[in-house]
Amino acid sequence: MDVLIAHGGASHREDLRKIVEKYAFNAIEEENALNAVIKAVMLMEDDPEFNAGTGSNMRVDGSIQMDAAVMVPGDFGAVINIEYVKNPVLVARDVMLRSPHMILAGDGALKFARKLGYEYYDPSTEEAIKRRERVLQKLKNGEIPSYYHPQFLAEFLGDTVGAVARINGEFAAAVSTGGTSLTLRGRVGDSPIIGAGIYCGKKGAVVATGIGEEIMRRMLSFRIYNRIGEKCLEEICREEIEKFGDIPVGVIAISDEDVCAISNRSMPYAIVKTQR
Ligand code: GLY
Asked: What is the pLDDT of residues 71-115, one digit of tens each?
């Protein structure tokens, strides 16, 4: 049985679940796990409703800097703070498959992408511009006392998109994000950090979503991966998420026998299965 789980971000609109499901069904048709998770993430990057690729959040200074990563057992590729490309997840894949490196950042990532033929693309949308304006207005009014303020999180997080899959017994994971609106240029979240926002090995695959700083602090994806086999995946993920208290977080995870999608906020997700 092949399985793919996709999510559209913690603290994101529950009504996007049907769309995530459509993309997941489309993606599981791919011939292997890596292509399947990349396809699921690409479809969400291309949909401006999600905070990745087109529709990504803007930083306080108005720039859009995107993070993405892919992982299979024994290999990893990521881009950090890449600008002006359509699909960061594809560049992350090419860092893994076509460069001697694991992570490329900033202008180096962009130069690498251009060398491979990725064309200039502006991922900004009217909606993202309005979101940033609302953040700036609230900052001006002193209405956002903290990065962790529940109102800010509910209104502006939108967060990451991601997918994990097991196809023909092989695992893969992919993730992509525009980060959060209330951040400085240059800020890096959990998504492109191996073991924090993403992990994949012989036992399974895990992808996280939520406040990147807190996910990194806890090495959430590796922590869950490391516990695979200890008890049922749902229980493991629930225990790890409970440690975040009220801080928004979600994970999707898959092992040989088990699947799990869980968040302490609304999180549109889909678990799709197929028998080849
Ligand atoms: N979870 C995405 C980020 O914090 O950037």
From this structure: 999 999 999 999 999 999 999 999 999 999 999 999 999 999 999
| pLDDT (average), residues 249-258 | 96
Q: How far apart are CA 126 and CA 136, in angstroms?
A: 15
Count of structural domains, the chain: 1
Q: What rounded mean pLDDT belongs to the chain? A: 93
197 alpha carbon – ligand 1 mean position (Å): 8
Range of the domain at 44: 2-274
State in Å: Cα 135 to ligand 1 middle: 17
Which residue's C-alpha comes closest to atom 4 of ligand 1? Answer: 212
Atom of ligand 1 nearest to the CA of 213: 4
In DSSP terms, 117 is beta-bridged to none
What atom in ligand 1 is closest to the CA of residue 197? 1
Output the pTM of the full model.
Answer: 0.95
Distances (CA, A) of 3 to 172, 244, 249, 260: 11, 28, 23, 11
Pairing of strands 269-274, 2-7: antiparallel
* CATH number, domain with residue 51: 3.60.20.30
Q: Which residues are near ligand 1 (CB < 6 Å)?
A: 159-160, 177, 179-180, 189-191, 209-212
The catalytic residue positions are: 160
